[in-house]
Write a structure and sequence with these properties.
alpha/beta, Arc Repressor Mutant, subunit A, 6 domains, 20-stranded mixed β-sheet, three-stranded parallel β-sheet, about 25% helix, globular
Length: about 725
C-alpha cells in the first residue's frame, strides 16, 4: 500500500511528527495501539495525534493497570485493560482455531480431555489460545501428537514460530520489570505449576531473601504487599482468592509464564528444580525446589552453597538424612518443610546460624531442640498444624523474630470452643520487639505476666490468644491499649462458663480490621462501635443478651459479620433501613433462641452471601430477603423441617422470597467433623442451567469454622489467613 507521507522512512523524529499532524489535522481518524507495555507510551505518541474536534478515536489496549490509569488523564484516549477470557469463550476460540479445517469445527471425542487441559493451561490468555490453537490446526489430530505438544509447551514456545508471539509478550513483560520485581517474579518458580500460593507466606519469603527494600515509615510487609500488587496490576500474577475486604490472600501465575520463569531461572542460576525423574543432584545453586523425588536423590546432597530450599510432595525424610543435612547446609536462610513426613528436628539445627525462615507446617514435629537458641537471625517461625505444644525458653532470645505462628486443630472433631490449640510460651516475650504476627498463644499457661508483656510489642499487627481467663482478660485490656499497630485480634476463652469483661479498653487500636471473639462476654464492648476501619467481626459463644446488630450496623466498612454458637441469646434480630452499608457476608448459626430476623428495605445494599445454620426456632425465611438484589448465595444448614418445606420450588409458601438468588443450598450433617455435610442446590436458576439436574454430594467446605483457617489446597500446602 502506498504511504500517505512520501519519504517518511527517511524523516527524523521532529519532521515525522509534524508531517503526521498536518496529514491528520483535517481528517476523522481511528488509531488502535494494541498490547501497550510502557506507562509513558502516550506521552511519547500524543504529539503526533491532533485533537481536531472531528470525533476521532484513539484506542489503547494493555494488560497493565498503570497504563490504563495514566491514559485516563487524556480525554481523547480510550484505554481498555485486557482481561482473561471466561471458560466458555476460551473454548469457543480454541475450537475455531484448532479445528477450523477439520471435524466441522468440533472437537473429536478422543481429544476432548486433552484439549481441556491445553485450554486450562492458557488460563484465558487470548494470545496463547489463538497461537496454540493455530499450531494444533497444522498437526495431525492424534492423541500422541497433541500430548507431545502439551508436555513440551515450554520448549515449543521458545522455538516454534506459531508460539513466538506468546513467548515474546510474556518475556517482554518480565524484561520490562525493575530489578527488585524481577527477583520477586522469579520466586514464583520456587513453587510447582498450578500451585495456590499464600500471599503472606510469599511476602515473608521475599523479605528474608532480601528482595524487599526498606522505605521510611513503612513495614517490610507493607512494601512487599505493594510489590505483589504491582505484579498483579501488570497481569503477571493471578488473583485466586480475596478476603471480604478485597485483600488478595491466594495468588498464582499463568502456566505459560511459569514455564518461561523456569527457563529464566535456569539461565540465571536463580534456582534449580529437582523434580521426579532426576536421580542425582550435583549442580551448585543458591536456591532449590524439591518436588516429588525419592529418598535416593537425597543421598546425593552433600555440602552445598544452597541457602533456600522448599520441599513439596515428599514421601520420606529419614533421620539419618536430616542429621547430615543440618551439618552440610550451614548457609541455609530459607527452609520450608511444610507437609513433609518430618517428625523431629535434630540438635544440629542450631548450626544454621544464617537461617531466617523456618516452616514446619503440617509436619509431626513434637519439640524444638535446645540448640534453637543459636538461631539468632530467625525472622519467621511457622508451626501450624504441628504437634508442638510449647516453645523452649530460648524463644525469647530470638530478637529478630518478626512472625511466630503456631496452632493445632482436629478437623475430624465437631466445632467446640477449644478446637484450636495454641502453644505455651515460657518466660518473657516482651523483649521480642520486632514481632508483627503472633498466633496462637495459650494465655492460661503463660499467665498474667505473659499477657502484660504483650503490651511491650509495639509493632504487633496480628495477635491470637487462646484459653483466656478473667485475670488474663483484664491484663489484655491494658496491653491492647499500647498496641497502636494492631489490625487483627483473635481471642478465645478457656471454657464456656468463664466470663471475660473486655469493656475496660479505653483506647482501642484505631486501625483494627478483623476481630474474632470466642467465649462469654460480660457485655458487648462499647468501643467496637468506634472502630471505623473494622472489616470483619466473628463472635462465638459470646452469649450476648442485647441485639448486637444495633451496635454493628453503622460501622462504615464492615464487610463480614459472623454470629455463631450461642453468640446471641435473644429472640429477635433487626436490621434497620440503611444498616450495614458495606456488608457482603452475614452468617448466623446455632442461635437456639432466635425466632425472627427482620431485614428492612434498603438495608444490606451489597450483601452477597447469607448463611443461616442450626437455628431450631426460626421457622420462616427472614422477611426482607426479597429486597436483597445483590444476594448471590444462600445457605441453610440443618434447619427445621417446616423451614425447609416452605422453600420447595414448587409448593413452598416462601420460595418467592428467595427465588431471585442464583445459588440456594440446603445442607445436612452426615458425618462427624467440621466438613461432614451433604449439600443440595435448589436454585431455580441453577436447575435451569443444569437442565433439571440437582446436586447431591458430600460437601468438603464450610461457611466458616470459626478459626480463620481455610481448607488445604490440592497440593497439600495449607493456605491460611494468618
Amino acid at each position: 500500500m502506498k504511504s500517505p507521507l512520501p519519504g517518511m522512512d527517511s524523516m527524523d523524529e521532529e519532521s515525522l511528527i509534524l508531517s503526521l499532524r498536518n496529514y491528520l489535522q483535517q481528517k476523522r481518524y481511528v488509531v488502535v495501539f494494541d498490547n501497550i507495555q510502557k506507562i509513558d507510551f502516550w506521552e511519547d505518541i500524543k504529539h503526533v495525534l491532533p485533537d481536531n474536534n472531528k470525533a476521532s478515536r484513539i484506542i489503547i489496549t494493555t494488560r497493565k493497570c498503570e497504563v490504563v490509569n495514566f491514559c485516563k488523564k487524556s480525554c481523547p484516549v480510550y484505554a481498555h485493560q485486557l482481561q482473561p477470557l471466561p471458560p466458555k469463550k476460551a473454548w469457543e476460540l480454541f475450537y475455531k482455531r484448532a479445528f477450523r479445517n477439520d471435524f466441522g469445527g468440533h472437537c473429536p471425542l478422543e481429544l476432548e480431555e486433552l484439549s481441556q487441559e491445553i485450554v486450562e493451561k492458557c488460563q484465558g490468555l487470548q494470545l496463547a489460545i489463538t497461537s496454540i490453537g493455530g499450531l494444533l490446526s497444522t498437526k495431525h489430530k492424534t492423541l500422541s501428537e497433541w500430548r507431545n505438544l502439551h508436555d513440551n509447551l515450554a520448549y515449543e514456545s521458545g522455538i516454534n514460530p506459531h508460539l513466538a508471539g506468546v513467548h515474546k509478550v510474556l518475556s517482554l513483560s518480565y524484561e520490562d520489570l525493575p530489578y527488585h520485581l524481577k527477583s520477586c517474579l522469579l520466586y514464583f518458580g520456587m513453587y510447582p505449576e498450578n500451585f495456590r500460593i499464600s500471599c503472606r507466606t510469599l511476602i515473608r519469603q521475599w523479605i528474608v531473601e532480601g528482595f524487599v527494600n526498606e522505605i521510611k515509615d513503612k513495614t517490610l510487609e507493607e512494601i512487599g504487599q505493594e510489590y505483589l500488587t504491582e505484579l498483579i496490576d501488570k497481569s503477571l500474577v493471578q488473583v485466586l482468592e480475596v478476603d471480604v475486604g478485597g485483600e488478595v490472600i491466594v495468588c498464582g501465575i499463568h502456566d505459560l509464564l511459569h514455564e518461561i520463569i523456569l527457563q529464566k531461572m535456569e539461565d540465571l542460576g536463580f534456582c534449580h528444580v529437582l523434580s521426579k525423574g532426576e536421580s542425582s543432584f550435583e549442580e551448585p545453586t543458591r536456591r532449590m525446589l524439591v518436588h516429588r523425588v525419592s529418598y535416593g536423590v537425597f543421598q546425593s546432597f552433600k555440602k552445598s552453597p544452597i541457602h533456600s530450599l522448599l520441599f513439596f510432595n515428599i514421601d520420606e525424610l529419614p533421620k539419618s538424612f536430616m542429621s547430615s543435612f543440618f551439618k552440610n547446609f550451614k548457609l541455609m536462610k530459607v527452609l520450608d518443610f511444610e507437609s513433609t513426613p518430618l517428625d523431629h528436628l535434630p540438635e544440629d539445627v542450631g548450626n544454621l546460624f544464617h537461617l531466617k525462615y523456618l516452616n514446619l507446617n503440617g509436619t509431626k514435629v513434637k519439640t524444638l531442640p535446645k540448640s534453637f537458641v543459636k538461631l539468632q537471625n530467625l525472622e519467621t517461625l511457622s508451626l501450624e498444624q504441628t504437634l508442638i505444644q510449647e516453645l523452649p525458653f530460648a524463644i525469647n532470645k530470638l530478637h529478630k523474630l518478626r512472625c511466630l505462628l503456631a496452632y493445632y486443630f482436629d478437623d475430624n472433631m465437631d466445632i467446640s470452643l477449644n478446637i484450636l490449640r495454641g502453644v505455651k510460651i515460657h518466660g518473657s516475650i516482651g523483649c521480642l520487639r520486632a514481632l508483627g504476627n503472633l498466633r496462637y498463644v495459650d494465655a492460661n499457661l503463660g499467665g498474667v505476666k505473659l499477657v502484660e508483656d504483650l503490651g511491650k510489642l509495639s509493632q504487633l499487627k496480628d495477635l491470637g490468644l487462646v484459653n483466656l481467663t478473667r485475670e488474663t482478660g483484664r491484663a489484655l485490656c491494658t496491653s491492647i491499649e499500647n498496641m497502636n499497630s494492631l489490625t487483627d485480634l483473635y481471642v478465645s476463652l478457656i471454657n464456656e462458663d468463664k466470663v471475660v469483661d473486655l469493656q475496660p479498653i479505653s483506647s482501642p487500636p484505631k486501625c483494627l480490621r478483623k476481630l474474632s471473639m470466642k467465649g462469654r462476654l460480660a457485655k458487648l464492648p462499647e468501643w467496637i462501635s468506634e472502630l471505623q476501619h473494622l472489616l470483619s467481626i466473628n463472635f462465638y459463644w459470646t452469649r450476648l443478651s442485647d441485639d448486637p446488630l444495633k451496635a454493628f450496623q453503622n460501622l462504615p466498612n464492615l464487610a463480614e459479620l459472623i454470629l455463631e454458637m450461642e453468640a446471641y441469646n435473644g429472640e429477635q434480630l433487626q436490621i434497620r433501613k440503611g444498616g450495614f452499608p458495606k456488608l457482603k457476608v452475614l452468617g448466623l448459626a446455632d442461635l437456639t433462641e432466635l425466632i425472627s430476623l427482620n431485614i428492612s428495605k434498603e438495608a444490606l445494599p451489597i450483601l452477597e452471601k447469607l448463611s443461616i445454620e442450626r437455628c431450631p426456632q426460626l421457622m420462616e425465611v427472614p422477611s426482607g430477603v426479597q429486597h436483597l438484589r445483590n444476594l448471590s448465595e444462600l445457605i441453610f444448614t440443618d434447619m427445621p423441617s417446616e423451614f425447609e418445606q416452605s422453600l420447595d420450588p414448587k409448593q413452598g409458601s416462601h420460595y418467592w422470597i428467595i427465588e431471585h438468588v442464583p445459588f440456594i443450598f440446603l445442607r445436612h450433617k452426615v458425618r462427624k467433623g467440621i466438613f461432614g455435610y451433604e449439600t443440595h442446590n435448589l436454585s431455580s436458576k441453577y436447575l435451569e442451567r443444569s437442565k433439571g439436574t440437582t446436586i447431591n454430594q458430600v460437601d468438603d467446605t464450610n461457611s466458616n469454622n470459626g478459626d480463620d483457617i481455610n481448607a488445604s489446597d490440592d497440593k497439600g500446602k495449607q493456605i491460611i489467613s494468618t
